[in-house]
Design goal:
This protein is mainly α. The chain is built from ten helices and no strands. It has a single domain, classed as Hypothetical protein af1432 (Orthogonal Bundle).
């Protein structure tokens, strides 16, 4: 089934290209960034289920990609279940991937518990630091500059302190975190 990860990745790439609800940079900058960090974390955490993590990487944002209403994680997990069934995954894999997706936002009701859940949450947050994610959000123009600064500083703090679950992972992006904070607080 591991070869299905690549097929699902290609399916998501096509869906992103056709999507009217995610920016054109979403696949290349965000999802590929999540994969980059997930792979780095998997090297440090070899007991984690690689296939479950990588399936969750590509399926965790289906709610956004497909423009679905409702809770981001719940709607995404429900869509992931459909995709995984189409590819013939058994119930144990589906259940594991859904659990990873449900906890990746790190809200008060569903904090990550398993190593796979912690890897996706961490990789998702870390991906925001390696490209122009925050500038891309700014370009959408959904907030004035002061609202944007407040939002970025809150998101940076949440990503770094709440979503990244491993000290070694925080160390990997600490310089970027500090640089972005300094840049946002200028002027």
């Amino acid at each position: 089934m591991a070869s299905n990860v690549e097929k699902i990745k290609q399916q998501i790439k096509k869906e992103c290209a056709k999507s009217k609800t995610v920016p054109d940079w979403f696949f290349k900058r965000h999802l590929s960034g999540v994969e980059t960090f997930a792979l780095k974390l998997l090297k440090q955490l070899p007991k984690a289920n690689r296939e479950v993590v990588l399936l969750a990487v590509w399926l965790h944002d289906l709610q956004r990609i497909r423009g679905l209403k409702g809770n981001h994680a719940k709607a995404g997990a429900a869509e992931a279940k459909k995709v995984l069934r189409e590819y013939g995954y058994d119930q144990s894999v589906i259940k594991a991937v859904k659990s990873v997706i449900l906890s990746h936002s790190c809200n008060s009701k569903t904090m990550p518990k398993t190593v796979e859940e912690k890897i996706l949450a961490s990789a998702d947050a870390m991906s925001h630091y390696i490209n122009d994610f925050y500038l891309g959000i700014a370009a959408l123009g959904q907030r004035d500059i002061e609202e944007f600064k407040t939002w970025v500083l809150e998101k940076l703090d949440r990503d770094f302190n709440k979503k990244i679950h491993f000290d070694f992972a925080r160390d990997m992006i600490r310089n970027q975190h500090e640089t972005i904070k300094k840049f946002i607080t200028l002027g």
